[in-house]
Please model this.
Amino acid sequence: QVQLVESGGGLVVAGGSLGLSCAAFGRTFKNYAMGWFRQAPGLERDFVAAVSVSGGRTVYAKSVKGRFTISRDNTRNTVYLQMTSLKPDDTAVYYCAADYSENVFYVPSKPTEFDAWGQGTQVTVSS
Model:
């Protein structure tokens, strides 16, 4: 199973930008569709964005579409989440997730579809 390690979280003022990275270890990264989820205190883990194995297809939650961008670099075994125009409502622990997929175009979005999870990184947006 692939192991995932997130980095890049922190504190940012509303309206600012922040980039997250997720490095994968242990298995063939290029066989996994990748996603980002987030969880605020007392709330469920919500889908944020995902990218297909090929990198050619992406899906976003409505709340972040147009502000966040997911991308992957299969040569570095890393997936990224670039976040702009951040709002206090974006405050959460952000988790990276991996879904083994033989369909290079499929983009998963449900937590149950993902096989592996990172430990999470805190993002705090102050008003």
In short: The radius of gyration is 13 Å. The chain has a mean pLDDT of 96. DSSP finds no helices and eleven strands in the chain. The longest strand covers residues 92-100.
